[in-house]
Design goal:
The complex is a heterodimer of chains A (about 130) and B (about 80). Chain A is α+β, with helices and mostly antiparallel strands and about 130 residues long. Helix content of chain A is about 30%, strand content about 15%. In chain A, β2 and β3 form a beta hairpin. Chain B has one domain. Chain B has one helix and four strands; from the N terminus they run βαβββ. The chains are: A alpha+beta (about 130), B alpha+beta (about 80). Chains A and B meet through α1, β1, α2, β3 and β4 of A and β1, β2, β3 and β4 of B.
Chain lengths: ~130, ~80
């Protein structure tokens, strides 16, 4: 979503994005003239008249599970977004019985929060696990 | 899901995703403005917006996507990087 019109979205997709991604962008490219939606999401820059790099992960119940906002010159890390979605999906599928500690990615250990884990995290999780 | 005609402007619907819109008087709207901030663990503000998708112009609503995981991305402008 940006403040550009849907007509400009079409041109961008046809003239540039389709050269990067075969068949062009498959998902909806939304238009937010005036930044009305960006404003309620807290990411619209009124002075510049543009949206900043806001990214929101919304679960199947419509609940915001996470967000990240960057100023325009720095691009996002798509892998990190995918990792977060995988983590939120794991937690949801476990119905909250599992949690993903720092540095978790698919295949790494999860934690099972409960009274028996209190003071014992050091036994199952070491700081090197925070890194790739 | 998204209907394929009548392209309008993007606008917040005034409610949260999947919830009925509450009618409030102006004073409480002002108060709401100050309090309204995105918080994790809470419902996303619903909105409707025109969009371009695979050759079509459509109108979509965030609440159309209830039941699915959604990544909502904002970016400064077309013909820049995302």
């Amino acid at each position: 979503m940006s403040v550009d019109s849907i007509f400009v979205h079409k041109m961008w997709n046809e003239n540039e994005l389709s050269k990067m991604v075969k068949g062009g962008v498959p998902y909806p490219m939304m238009s937010d003239a005036g930044g009305k939606v960006g404003t309620i999401y807290g990411i619209y820059d009124e002075i510049g008249g543009v949206e900043t790099r806001g990214r929101f992960i919304i679960d199947p119940d419509g609940i915001v599970q996470g967000f990240e906002v960057l100023t325009p010159p720095v691009g996002r890390n798509v892998n990190e977004t995918l990792r977060q979605i995988q983590a939120f999906q794991l937690v949801r599928n476990s119905k909250g019985t599992e949690a993903t500690p720092s540095g978790w990615k698919p295949g790494k250990i999860t934690l099972k929060p409960g009274p028996e884990l209190v003071g014992k995290v050091w036994k199952v999780w070491t700081t090197d696990k925070a890194f790739d | 899901m998204a209907e394929k005609i009548k392209i309008g402007c993007a606008r917040p619907t005034g409610g949260s995703v999947g919830e009925a819109i509450q009618i409030v008087n102006e004073k409480s709207i002002e108060k709401k403005k100050e309090e309204k901030m995105i918080k994790v663990g809470q419902k996303a503000p619903d909105f409707t917006a025109p969009a371009y998708q695979k050759g079509d112009f459509i109108n979509l609503k965030l609440s159309d996507y209830l039941g699915k995981w959604v990544v909502l991305c904002f970016y400064p402008g077309d013909f820049t990087f995302v």
